[in-house]
Amino acid sequence: MEIDISSIAINLVVTVLVYEFYPIIQRFILNKTYEEKQAKKLATINTIVVYILLTVYLIGFTDQNRIANPAPALLYGYIAYLILKKKHEEKIGQEEDEDLKNLIENLSKDKSTNA
User: Fold this and answer.
1) CB of 47 within 8 A of CB of 80?
2) How far apart are CA 102 and CA 33, in angstroms?
3) Which of 30, 57, 84, 105 is an S-S bond match for 39, by CB 3.0 to 4.6 Å?
């Protein structure tokens, strides 16, 4: 059995691009991040949809008649979750922004009640 390194490399790149297309668009082009629970949900849905599409492709359009391997789906699903999830620093920054906004609102209310 002959191993074709270029074919393996192409398959790996295509698999990564297919599984991570949605998370990369969300995070780096639309600049959206999500809370942990929502990121898990989106990553899970993305992984399931892509896995089903790859399995349909393998069964319907290739002569291999096999299902897609679920191990890469789990790995790329976790990577998608990490891409979509807000970083801890982002959460802290948002909390500080909200605290500052609340402080300004409270000060403006105090000024209007004192005037």
Assistant:
1) yes
2) 23
3) 84
Token pair of 70, please?
A: 């679920």
Owning domain of residue 26: 5-84
Secondary structure of residue 2 in the 3-state scheme: coil
Q: Which long-range contacts (CB under 8 A, 24 or more apart) does 41-47 make?
A: 42/80, 42/84, 43/77, 43/78, 43/80, 43/81, 43/84, 44/77, 46/19, 46/22, 46/77, 46/80, 47/19, 47/73, 47/74, 47/76, 47/77, 47/80
Q: In terms of domains, do 37 and 54 share one?
A: yes
pLDDT tens per residue, range 64-80: 778 888 888 999 999 99
Provide the terminal-to-terminal Cα distance of the chain, rounded to the nearest Å.
Answer: 87
For residue 108, count other CB atoms closer than 10 A to its CB.
10
Give 83-94 pLDDT, tens digit per residue. Answer: 999 876 555 556
pTM (whole model) above 0.85: no
Q: What's the token pair of residue 1?
A: 């059995």
The CA angle 56-62-68, to the nearest 5 degrees, is: 45
Neighbours of 114 (CB within 10 A): 6
